[in-house]
């Protein structure tokens, strides 16, 4: 909103909780004027897990990358959506369902082919809760997320030891520069391991239920990347 003197009020939420701004590309010091970049060696999926069960960083296989791209799981967070006062789990295919007119599998196939052609690695970064679900745990510290992202991009996670998540199947690094080891394995951050298991099964079931509408349009390999429920 703009007041009578033409001064914008960036704290006015009467129209929207989520604000955008724009500026000329010339204002960016390290800009690329042709608006082109190279092919990425790393593809990053961001999610905000309000249940606190997804690892803060996971390395995905090609089928897992397609599966999680199609799933588009995250949480609506207070301050970004009107009427949202606490996080709500949501699935948005390809992380932008309203803008995808074709079956999500079409876009997942395109992504998979490009990643295979250029040898890209897919990562799932969770900026959500750790140590419990919303209301019990706490948000992942930004400094840890930054450290994990930098480690992935710099190749520092290429040669570390990994453990396979028993429900979701993706690889989780057992160590990462600048991040306490216990933070990397979500179950270790919960006081009640049984509560973690129950919540993880709940989220896995939500993934499976959501993916039912896409299963017929993707390969068996991608379908096999669905999480398992204990």
Walk me through the structure.
- The chain is an alpha+beta fold and 230 residues long.
- 30% of the residues lie in helices and 15% in strands.
- The chain has one domain (44-223): Phosphoenolpyruvate Carboxykinase, domain 3, CATH 3.90.228.
- The mean pLDDT is 92.
- The strands form four sheets. It has a three-stranded mixed sheet. It has a two-stranded antiparallel sheet with strand order 3-4.
- It is globular.
- Strand 8 (162-164) and strand 9 (171-173) form a beta hairpin.
- The protein is built from seven helices and nine strands; from the N terminus they run ββαββαβββαββαααα.
- The termini are far apart.
Q: Which strand order spans the largest sheet, edge to edge or round the barrel?
A: 1-5-2
CATH architecture: Alpha-Beta Complex
Largest sheet: 3 strands, mixed
User: Structural class of the secondary elements?
Assistant: alpha+beta
Q: Could you give the distance between the termini?
A: 51 Å
Question: How many DSSP helices?
Answer: 7
Regions with pLDDT < 50 over 5+ consecutive residues? none
**What is the count of structural domains?**
1
CATH class: Alpha Beta
Order of helices and strands: EEHEEHEEEHEEHHHH
Number of strands: 9
- CATH fold title: Phosphoenolpyruvate Carboxykinase, domain 3
Note the beta-strand portion.
Answer: 5-15%
What is the helix fraction of residues, given as a range?
25-40%
Mean pLDDT, rounded to whole units?
A: 92
Rg over CA atoms:
19 Å
């Amino acid at each position: 909103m703009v007041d009578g003197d033409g001064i914008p009020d960036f704290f006015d939420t009467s129209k929207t909780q989520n604000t955008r701004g724009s500026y000329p590309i010339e204002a960016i010091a390290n800009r690329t004027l042709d608006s082109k970049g190279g092919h990425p060696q790393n593809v990053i999926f961001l999610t905000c897990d309000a249940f606190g069960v997804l690892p803060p960083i996971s390395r995905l296989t090609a089928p897992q990358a397609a599966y999680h791209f199609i799933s588009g799981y995250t949480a609506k967070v207070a301050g970004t959506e009107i009427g949202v006062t606490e996080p709500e789990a949501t699935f948005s295919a390809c992380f932008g369902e309203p803008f995808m007119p074709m079956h999500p599998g079409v876009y997942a196939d395109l992504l998979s082919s490009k990643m295979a052609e250029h040898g890209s690695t897919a990562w799932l970064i969770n900026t959500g809760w750790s140590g419990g679900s919303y209301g019990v745990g706490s948000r992942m510290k930004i400094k840890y997320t930054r450290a994990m992202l930098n480690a992935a991009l710099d190749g520092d996670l290429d040669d570390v030891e990994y453990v396979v998540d028993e429900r979701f199947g993706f690889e989780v690094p057992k160590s990462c520069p600048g991040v306490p080891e216990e933070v990397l394995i979500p179950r270790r951050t919960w006081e009640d391991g049984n509560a973690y298991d129950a919540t993880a099964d709940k989220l896995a079931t939500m993934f499976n239920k959501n993916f039912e509408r896409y299963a017929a349009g993707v390969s068996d390999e991608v379908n096999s990347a669905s999480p398992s429920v204990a």
